[in-house]
Design goal:
By secondary structure, the protein is an alpha/beta fold. It has a single domain, classed as Rossmann fold, CATH 3.40.50. It has a 7-stranded mixed sheet, with helices on both faces. The protein is globular. The protein starts with 5 loop residues before the first helix and ends with a strand. It contains 8 helices and 7 strands, in the order αααβαβαββαβααββ. Helices cover about 40% and strands about 25% of the residues. This is tRNA (Cmo5U34)-methyltransferase. Keywords: Methyltransferase, Transferase. One of its GO terms (biological process) is methylation. One of its GO terms (molecular function) is methyltransferase activity.
């Protein structure tokens, strides 16, 4: 099996990504809408979107809160261009950054809220906890974090895919970098990681099949 470098994987699929998500991902016609419903309807809310892709969640968020100010971070330059095309009337509200969100300095007490949708199911527990700590620090007092993602149905499923990812990387002599392979975690593990990062409350607010929305508060 070949693993594709993450930015190349998504750049190569930028044109067809939205159609793929809607046609092939169970619940996609609902979870972007349900995610947007959690965004407060206050003026000039400052929101960080991690792994924003082509902006499917932003399409729905702008319907809920048209004045929201968004910083979007994604590895795929081609996908970020799609956001600019779709929301050319909101370019003064959108700051798009081509980078990986693990390394990028997202600041301290900057954002009212942070959201990630279908992006974090590629990483280890250790990587996620480190990122969650950064998210926690970046939030203002009483800030919120929304994670909408693919989850493992049980611990056996999670363990198997982490082992497979390690095995394939060893075979291909990949020692570092971001490569596309799905390693979803159970919802129980996700919640514990968020608590470990410092969040005071974490709630599962929605689930359809193997997609869950978690709402964490600082």
């Amino acid at each position: 099996m070949k693993l594709e470098e993450m930015s190349s994987f998504f750049n190569n699929r930028a044109e067809d990504y939205e159609q793929h998500m809607m046609d092939n991902v169970e619940g996609a016609n609902r979870f972007y809408i349900e995610t947007a419903k959690l965004i407060p309807k206050v003026d000039e809310l400052n929101l960080l979107d991690l792994g924003c892709g082509t902006g499917l969640e932003l399409d729905e968020i702008f319907k809920i809160n048209p004045t929201v100010k968004v910083t979007g971070i994604d590895l795929s330059k081609d996908m970020l261009e799609k956001i600019k095309e779709k929301h050319s009337d909101k370019l003064n509200q959108i700051n798009l950054i081509v980078d990986n969100y693990f390394d990028y300095d997202i600041g301290v007490c900057v954002f009212d809220g942070v959201v990630s949708v279908e992006t974090l199911h590629h990483f280890t527990h250790e990587e996620k906890v480190g990122l969650y700590k950064k998210i926690f620090k970046s939030l203002k007092e009483n800030g919120f974090y929304i994670e909408t993602d693919y989850i493992a149905p049980n611990q056996e499923y999670e363990d198997y895919h982490f082992r497979e990812n390690e095995r394939i990387r060893l075979e291909l002599e990949i020692t570092d970098g971001f490569y596309h392979y799905d390693t979803p975690c159970t919802v129980e593990n996700q919640i514990q990681m968020l608590y470990k990062a410092g969040f005071k409350s974490v709630e599962k607010v929605w689930q359809h099949e193997c997609t869950v929305i978690l709402l964490a508060k600082k």
